[in-house]
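Section: Multi-chain targets

For targets with more than one molecule, the full set of components is provided together so that the structure can be written out for the assembly as a whole rather than chain by chain. Components appear in the order listed by the source. The example entry contains three components.
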Amino acid sequence: MTEVLARLDGIVRHFGHVKALDGATLEIHAGEVHGILGENGAGKTTLLNILGGIIRPDVGSLEMGGTPVRLQSARAAWEMGVGLVHQHFTLVPGLSVLENLALGRRHEGRRWTLRLEEIRQEAYRLGRLTGLNVPFEASIEELGVGDRQRIEILKALLRDPQLLVLDEPTAVLAPAEIEQLFGLLRTLANEGRAVVLVAHKLDEILSIADRVTVLRDGRTVMTAALADLDAAVLTEAMVGPSSREEEEPEARVREVSSLFGQGTERLARDRALAARVVASLNGISVYGPRGELVLQDVQLEVMSGEVIGVAGVEGNGQRDLALLLSGRRDVYVGNLEIPDDVGFIPQDRNLEGLAADFDLTENVALAVHRDPEFRWGPLLRWDVIKERAKEIRSRFKVRSSDTRVLARELSGGNQQRLVVGRELSRLPRLLIAENPTRGLDLTATAFVRGELKRLAREAAAGVVLISTDLDEVLELADRIFVILRGRLTLVPSVRHSRAGVGAMMLGGGPEVG
Amino acid sequence: MRRFGQLGVAVVALLATGIIAAGSLWLGGYDPLVAGRAMLQGSFGSGTAILSVTMVRAVPLIVTGLAVALAFRAGVWNIGAEGQLYAGAIAAAWVGLSWGSAPRWVLTPAVLLAAFLGGALWAAIPALMKVRLGIGEVIPTILMNFVGIYLAAFMVHGPLQEARGVFPQTDPITDAARLPVLVEGTRLHLGFPIALLIGAMLWAGLRWTHFGFQVRSVGASPEAARVSGMIESKRVLLVAFLTSGAIAGLAGGIEITGVTFALYEGLSPGWGYTAIAVALLAGLHPAWVIFTGLLLGGLEAGAGAMQREAGVPAAWVSAVEALVILFVLAGDQIRRRFHA
Amino acid sequence: MPEAIAITAFLEASVRLGIPLALAALGETITERSGVINIGLEGSLIAGALGGALGALALGGAGAGVLVGALGGALVAMIFAGFVVGLGTDQIITGTAVTLGGLGFTGAIYQTRFGATGTALTLPTLSSVPIPFLSDIPLIGSALFNQAPTSYFAYMVAPVLWYFVYRTEWGLELRAVGEEPDAAAAAGVRVRWSRFWATLFGGTLAGIAGAHLALAHAGTFAENMSAGRGFIAIAVVVLGRWNPLLVLLAALFFGAASALQFQAQTLGLSLPYQLFLAFPYLLTLLALAGWVGRSRAPASLALPWPKDR
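Its structure, encoded as tokens over all components, is:
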């Protein structure tokens, strides 16, 4: 079927002085599942937002069903048959599920009344047709990510879109849920609609898409049917020819040694010799604001020199575990032992990691202000802190003109480099990293993962990686745990695979095949 | 770089305010030039004006401006400086009158200390409501302003009223409680260098001390302070809030011991509110507060002359101060947009 | 029977004191439902009072005064919204500045127009209009149903607003904007537009409250006569849990509590006069402290949108 449902051509879009899209094109055919691939920062979400009418391109044309259109708003896009399901959920917690489904649907001339019953009927009918089971009676706060996503998709489907667009839907799902979702998408495509799917994970796209468009640096570098491609070709398209700075392994090791200084080798040796338990949780339980158990009877020991991975779908207690392990929260039941110098890389770097209006030096001070080497009694030794900031800036390659640049002026990748560098440079005995590579491009991602591993191996620290990215956990962790509804379960090494861990993320026990 | 941006905003805000202010005068049927000249004459036009009127009027503005700046730096919206000032003044008058026979070296510090504590106490109620109960501090601090004003009124009509019992005011405090005059023949008193000292201490404290950094962090980003800085935000907020109230209370005490020597209704023509303009115009920077305090002190000093010679009502001045705040806010926003 | 008369007098005072609060609080309820806290409400109130006075004098009738008062309140709110919604300035400080400016400008205009003398202005008043039958109900009749038209307006506006917020598509969008503006925007709702109109509406109602104060309550205008009612109204919104019907009740309840001060006088308690003056503010503080945790504010209240500007 080559009926062209939508076509974007020559799209250019700036945000301030950043060029998010620089001549991107996209062509969607009816009945297909179309994958859009690209690194973080390649422009995928921007392109989708343009298709969805949320933002307008600076330059470029948009055609729907062969006719040129200008989408002035999200509403205009719906009316043209585009249903966009966003990456970050757009459900309103203060409203009921039905009210959320009703939001945005305008019945011109009847706006003075809300026909929730009608929506319920329609939603129910659609649910039966597609297999999307949505709990109408629940309140949004109680629902997990899988349910929320189903509601989002239902919300989009209620408007009967010709084009269903999903932005990174798999990021928060367990492998089995991803399969379910893909089954649904295939059904919808078979009905004659088109499904557009954005992902940055190659194997997911490979398993579902008919055709693929690859974006790199805001440009479309490839559009083809999947049958004609393989993973290698796609990867190269995404990343570009290997002209990135590949650093010699020895050079990196040398660099790290000079970062950590002479004392590190001895430190690492001492710590490694001790093979110490760096942190231990014994029978830890934590209660949430409504009295519910968010962490249940957690048993965990972190040894120096190892990386522990905690995999799980978002919303199963990771946040509380991270806060507890890093000493940022101290209301709990049970026995907790952690060192004083715990480092923490929080998942929301903008909100919790950095103060936007502080410069590099001040943000570094946030991590080190309690350490004696930076203090003189009640005073802070800004000269020493500034030196450390300069070191971090150069060692961890935080791109900025100097240390007086404000955190808000740094790009996401550089912000994360700052946070990582700041925490690691203290050589903590224990480091907790919460989704540390979320939203970062491939280079920054590889960098952060490398540093975490290095901290464990060379500085003999204990690293706890709490991540919703299963591949990241599999890549880095020596031991893997799965967190589900507040309970931590060890994954036996034989099951260290996507399928194995994935099943456990949803509740299959270790003994389940 | 950041400093210049801030200065630019202040200058542009003042210019914009000046234009609107002049325009509003013209609309009201007043002659803006006559009014402007009268104001400048009244505030900076002569030695007496500068020393006895402007600088004296600037003292409470600088001190309350510092109080507000400290609070705002911590992210605390202390709109209650007015009530805290009155609380400090009440405490100062009470101690000054009760221990009138004590020697100067005991009495003066005691009176000022009482003012300091009185202000802190007044801030304690909204502060605890915020920290313990999670209630936003804006409305409570404003409400406490009203209560503070009525408490002062009650005091001067009742317990602290002058012995004669004729006017709603206290007896004058003894000489031992009064701040010495700095320049012979003027009204410029020790309170001015005290204000400068407070400014210097606040500047140094925020910039160099560990606690000062914690205060700034909580103000810059409460979440980052808590998560990355492992800062006990609640404790820091509480101390900053109480200190802010204490400094505002001290302003009241300085006014009693340096200028009025007695407490009466209407002691403050809204200094606690003007302080917000003083603080914002200074970019919340303690050193700059001294200048903006002088500037707005001049504005208020000139207002009296303006009323006498051009007939412009005094209330207009507080309207102008409000404009200053609005333009500073707008300027900051626009500057931020330009950066991004 | 003296007791009945006392009760009626008390109820009458309660309604009289509660209505200006109710009008302002109902307006602010809508504003806050969109995620905007309007500390400048006091400015709208005093502008409404002056507008009411000037309008009544210039146009020769209290009714016209109310319209001018509404406009005055709306104008002040528009300035506030321009800064807060248009530019994204901090809501709290902008609101404080707007209130200070409102009090200053109204004071200056009043003095310019009428001179700084001590004589009070006499205004055409909004006389009470008794509602037939209802005003004859024993005890409560004359308190509730023998009021100025603006009071009846308050009674009617509350249920209308309730229906608007909970039972219409507009109201659904308003609530979405107040809870999760990003989600509302994604659903095609114009967030800034909603906030702007909600703020303007709140200011208009506060303007009517101010006109009521000048024309029905006091019969005159005096500088700063709003006396912090705008701030108290914001607290009343909290007590009423952002639900228009409950807000009306909370305002009347507040009026009743304030009316107690007059009861104390008749009971012969010799409490200082200033305590009576301070009473409403102390009461508000107590109410806020006591009501903590009972209700949840709209999640995006006081947060700018879009977030990083």
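DSSP finds 18 helices and 21 strands in chain A.
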